[in-house]
Amino acid sequence: MDLAPKLYRVATRVVIYGVPFLASVASIAPFVFMVLISFQHTFFVSGNPARWIPRQPTIETYLAVLETPNFLRWVFNSLFVASTVTAMVLLIQSMAGYVFAKKEFPGRELLFVLILSGIMIPRAVTVIPAFFIVKDLGLLNSYPGLILPPLAMPLGVFLMRQYMRTLPSELLDASRIDGCSEFGTFWRIVLPLSKPGLAVLGIYTFMEQWRDFLWPLIVAQKDVLKTLPVGLSVFHTEFRTDYGVQMAAVLLSIVPFLIVFLFFQRYFIKGMTVGALKG
Amino acid sequence: MVASQPCILPRRARQYLTAYGFLTPYLALYITFILLPVLWSFYLSLCKGGLLSGTEFVGFQNYIKAWNNSLFIRALQNTAYYTLLVVPLAMFSSLTLALLIDKMAPFWQNVVKSALFLPMVSSVVSLSIIWKAIFIPDRNGPLNTLVGVFGIPPQNWLGNPDLVIPSIVGFEIWRGYGFWVIVFLAGLDAIPNDLYEAARVDGANAWHILTRITLPLLRPTFLFLLVMGFIWNFQLFDAVYMLTAGGPANASATVVWYVYRNAFHFENLGFAATMGVLLLFIILILTVLQLKYIPSEVD
Known about the structure:
The structure holds two protein chains of two kinds.
Chain A: H1 3-38, H2 60-67, H3 71-102, H4 108-117, H5 123-136, H6 143-147, H7 155-164, H8 169-177, H9 182-193, H10 195-211, H11 214-219, H12 228-238, H13 243-263, H14 265-272
Chain B: H1 11-44, E1 47-50, E2 54-57, H2 61-68, H3 70-101, H4 106-117, H5 124-134, H6 142-149, H7 164-189, H8 193-201, H9 206-217, H10 219-233, H11 238-243, H12 255-264, H13 269-293
């Protein structure tokens, strides 16, 4: 009599903790594999059965990656492009979002719908003409060529408008009466009050840029201007059979960002669900 | 109310000017890199030619060509196949996981969330390099070793035309379900607790609570993931570029992959633009249909 409910409770707990645990293992396992393989040179040709744990760990694989001509440059490019895009998106798109949230002007509704509908447009449609435009502006193989087009992605305008609508208008009027200029009001009152929204948009933008592939693949053809994903996509074909070197390169490309992620994990999770915010 | 201030311009005109001043930087970017490219794509889709040879107006020829191009039709079918596998599988597995994680102690919730989120931090390129090694067709390949435990013979995961799409689907779900789970968890968080308490007071069992309260109230989340899942997966490119380059024999080619090849490798700009425009319309129609026929309102 007593046993059945107890058994039921134990069984539920096993399911509640067991299934997510297994899913977590599935998420992490490929990364563990990556770390193990990165310390040995020839993985699959070597043994039968395959040797998962390296018998004689080597760091030669890592040295080989670091000796690749532009590897560290790719890391720099990725960080530089992603942070510049993020900073500029935060400024330019929150200015636009602010106007849509708090100002009345002719054409407001029309412009907003036009901008918002940009969210649905596939990259495949804009990428070819954008390539021509960047080329005609003389920006192929340049940092501005990598940085400017992503600034037009409309999600941030929408997000900042939603956030800034909740700011009390009286506060903004008061600052204007106190003699603040329009931009002063925006810079000293609106932006500081929007910090939580800016944090979410900033993290989202940085992640998207850090991982972006198609646009840098097309626009950065010179080796020194490649971002990490583009550089890696070429690099791994040069070490086709040396899985150790490939894994070392992947690990080196993941680790710097992983450390940041572990520190700010909570904000990241919030930032990545930003698309789910409706309004 | 703000008192009117002495000023050269009338107050209202000045306000409009400020508004447009704030908007100008973004509008300039939007026009240059989104609006103009979209219009240009429409025009290009009526042309033939390439990056080097220049373009020539040919009217609707490209659209007829697309209709008769077996590779484009194949890419379209593949894309639909990916989407129809990824979306329901990711939806079901992530919803199940989210419901379970929701019942865990907060500490373990965070541990699991971080683990599931790990793949999201890296680019598809990095992840593909790891998975290319995992998919190695050799008997000793990691995945083949794993399925060998269950008595399944070694498979050529990315080289077998029947297996290549399910393999990439597996990769895409592995890479993305952390995001789906976290979105579902956010949706679950938003359900007010009193509803559950009221139901329990009324003597509802776990199944009733799930089917009468939780699932109906998750409808907006469900609709969001459905719409976005279609939009994202119809644009699948990175994983195909890295894992298979469309092969074997175009068995894994997607529309965006084929657009990229035509534009930047085959010198078929006009045709590439045509397929891009067609993709735009397909996504548009699917999105409108989903928003129209799937109720998002909670009864």
